[in-house]
Amino acid sequence: LAPLRYTGVTGAPFRSEQHRRVLAPGQEERVVLTVPYSEYRPHLGPQDSLKLVVTGTVLETQQVLAKEMRLQLTVPQLTLTLLAPALVGQEVPVQVVFQNPLPEPLEGATLRMEGSGISCPKPFSL
């Protein structure tokens, strides 16, 4: 498991596991890999994803099997709600909702609103 930069460059792997299985003809086996946030957080930048590479070798034939997967992390959404009718030339109250999905507090977060009629957008500290 390794970080995949937004540029497409793979970072240094931060987790590797080996599993050995004996499978009967037609048998299927599942291996579950759980990666906690605390393990991958230090390796990811703001636009990075995770790259998972799985390889296997059939000992009897030395055939190598491989599969690669890019895990794009879901970015939380902002919800915007108008709290009053929007009338030309008048202020309109807007409610912005963001729920922190992380198991730790966010620090130093800011909200910036830009748009038509907003002459001087300023960041709002959260």
TrEMBL record:
InterPro entries: Ig-like_fold (IPR013783), Transglutaminase (IPR050779), Transglutaminase_C_sf (IPR036238). SUPFAM superfamilies: Transglutaminase, two C-terminal domains (SSF49309). Transmembrane segments: none annotated. Keywords: Transferase. GO terms for molecular function: protein-glutamine gamma-glutamyltransferase activity. This is TGM1 glutamyltransferase. It comes from Upupa epops. The gene is Tgm1_1.
